[in-house]
Amino acid sequence: MSDTSRILISCMDRRLSAFLDSEYNDGSTVFVRNAGANVLTVLNTVKQLSIEHPIKSIVIAPHTDCGAMGLVEAAINGRTKTSAQIDKYLVSQFKINKFADRKELESRINCDVQEASISPFARSIGASLDIKLIDLSTLDIPADTGRHILTLVKPSKTMYLDLIRRYSDNVGMFDSYFIQARGIRDVLPDIEIAATALHISDIRLISESKLNNAIMDSDVNVLKSQDYLAAAKVTAVSR
Fold first, then answer.
1. How far, in Å, are 68, 72, 190 from residue 87 at the CA level?
2. Closest to 67 (Cα-Cα) out of 30, 10, 26, 12
């Protein structure tokens, strides 16, 4: 990623990948993704990337019809109870905000919360900051096949279509959610959301470098130690 100049933080939602490929993958953008484009669990990743490469701009791209924001709304309104981990790293930062409905939470509050979280760091490295809300209703999204997997991969400039092709069992472009961060432990809250709120039990790790294989083996062990993943299938795919 020697020519990286932009970091894009977006949601793990499976419906975004084709759009991100077409609109943002210009060869100099590195993608970081989690539940809800939540800066809190990927800030360490962004900081590390900025040390390794000059970053000129940061883009945060949340979206409408977001499952993570639906979970936040339900938790704040008392319709569901989240774990201590999800409450600490996702829900808690929204509790001081008042919003009329989920639409306002997605279109305004989440954008404001994430902007406030990343702005001091963006200023400290002299990077521009843009918030781009993605309206899913404007995208061409095929019917849901019902097959959902979760792909874990390090921050990357690789096209999502190319990542999907690593799988030998015909995983479709819209079948996989993506979480991308430097450290698996940072995004355990996001993985828990995928497993408990989205009911994804097929979790796969992709290594883009042979040097990462040992790290990936360690990550698999970390995942298998999580109680909420007891029934999940966790596999690794090496380059």
1. 12, 9, 11
2. 12
Alpha carbon of residue 180 to chain centroid? 6
Residue 64, C-beta contacts closer than 8 angstroms, at least 6 positions apart:
103, 106, 107, 133, 134, 135, 136, 137
Report the percent of the chain where pLDDT is more than 90. 90
Average pLDDT over residues 94-113: 96
Residue 104 · residue 76 · CB < 8 Å: no
pLDDT at 51 over 50: yes
In a domain, 28, yes or no: yes
| Residue 1: per-residue pLDDT | 42
Count of structural domains, the chain: 1
| In a domain? residue 1 | no
Domain that holds residue 44: 6-237
Q: What is the mean pLDDT of residues 36-45?
A: 98
Work out the average pLDDT over 93-107.
Answer: 95
Question: What is the pLDDT at residue 217?
Answer: 81
- The pLDDT value recorded for residue 239 is 61
Q: Is residue 59 part of a domain?
A: yes
Instruction: For residue 169, give both structure tokens.
Output: 């069992």
Token pair for 212: 């990462």
Q: In what order do the strands lie in the sheet with 128-131?
A: 128-131, 57-61, 6-11, 29-34, 176-180, 149-153, 202-206, 233-237
Is residue 148 included in any domain, yes or no? Answer: yes
CATH of the domain at 15: 3.40.1050
